[in-house]
Amino acid sequence: MQVKEIVSLLQAEPLLVCNDSLMDYEFDYAFATDLMSDALAMIQNDPEKTLLVTGLANASTLRTAEMLDIKFIVLVRGKVLSEEILEIARENNLNLFTTKHTMYSACGILYARGLRGIYE
Amino acid sequence: MNSILHKDYTVVRDDYARAGKVSSDIKATLSTIGIPPSVLRNIAVASYESEINMIIHAWGGDITMDVFDNGTITLVFKDPGPGIPDLEKAMTPGWSTASDEARNMGFGAGMGLPNIKRVSDTFDIETSEKGTTITLGFTVA
After folding, report:
1. Which of B20, B108, B114 has its CB closest to that of A63?
2. Of A25, B11, B94, B113, which residue is the least packed, with the fewest Cβ within 10 Å?
């Protein structure tokens, strides 16, 4: 699923876009969690093809993405990040969007349109 | 074997604001010498989990990284205590003693040590009330 479709379906707003060609980039999987230790343990294959969906709006999320080579994060429940934390995202060329949908709804919307979970 | 690249770091207890900076530097440093992405990712994940453990469970500590001329990389995480009372339980996925603050940071799922062991080629841990030392080894294919 292309980023522009994900953004449209979730009515997501950009918080930070470090890669101008991002909108055409295609993601094969999504992983949703507020627990970064679960993300670190479970996202083992194709992290560059995996969208991270989370409501955890802090530096841990960005550091986790950095370690895993994840480049695209959607924050749910309308969460935003402070400028200080966004600096970590800039250093690591992360792309961040926020949606007002809850985690459950955001995942349901994307799954119904064909974006699969990992390990399916 | 000889170390061809050595770095020392210090981690401060409860310093959540800087959590991950050491692992970020380790990953960036190893990236510049051409470590393959898949190996680099495993090293970064193991390092970050270990660094977080030092911040949320231990009283800070020291981290060293060595790249050896035989193509292996060693990371050592040495803290001054308080030690892990029940190592067998700590190695069990899902078992955690993390504080509310650690959980607010997205940690404390009880996946740390099992995950560190999983992504490392070699894993050694020694713990007592005087501290814990974790030594991780990675082979660059």
Report:
1. B20
2. B94
